[in-house]
Amino acid sequence: MLRLKLLLALAVAGLALPAFAQKYPAKPVQIIVPFAPGGGSDFIARFTAQRLTDALGSQVIVENRPGAGGLLGIEQGVKAKPDGYTLTLIASSYTVNAALYPLKYDPIADITPVVQISQGPMIVVANPKFPAKTLQELIAAAKQKPGSINFASAGQGSITHMVVEFFQYRAGVKLNHVPYKGTGPALTDTISGQTDIFFSSTATALPHVKSGRLRAIAVTSAKRLPAEPEVPTIAESGVPGFDVILWHGLIAPKGVPAPIVERINAEVNKMLQSPETAKQLETDGVAPAGGNAQRFGDQIRKEISLWKDVVTKTGVKVQ
How confident is the model at residue 138, as a pLDDT? Predict the structure, then answer.
């Protein structure tokens, strides 16, 4: 009788095994990229997918689902089945959007943070004919003649717009916003002198800095950029505590089993520790990030709070 009870108990336990206890992954894993092919997010996603395919022993495919500034693809990813087979690659714009737009999902409660992949500063660049050579000179000029300095952005509500709103608020200055439809035209007009300054990703701007077509004034991170160590940070240049980075990371829908999250997190962290990975990411102007899922979740919550505060205090609105 005791043996029979033991066998029955084992059978019930077997039936109760959760789905994630089975072999994972048992089919291809999908990474949704909420942007068009060819950009920085697409590069990070495909780079990660290729290495995860080898590490997991199952194909990891990238699906580009652009639209509504990234909101469409993220919504699809967040509402997918929480079985670990749908991941979404998000960028730092994820936290900006959460502060600016009414979303159809909760950007904190409806997701499972998995891992932060990359991180890197933005770089403040100016047309070489722009009189201010340093950020201190730029701030002084802006205070002397409010609204006289034109800054380009990749569009209203973009990270390249919001970081300047944050800078204006912290530095106590007023600049004139000239929004463009994308980074390309914003950078082109800064090079030509149609606009004065642009807060750009390093990958986009550095080639033009090295060629002399743009002048680097400062970086937005708390630490200097290794590739341009002579360029000071904004925090060093009169705006203490200023620290804004660009990043990419993976999230999953709410409710994905912890062992699956831990497995993906571990494999991505292994990938990020490779010198080859650091070299590849450097070509996109970023560095490896890594860390556990909780750390990434903390970063997301911190930034959403930051941008909501910026929106509240500056009154910025997007149409």
Answer: 97
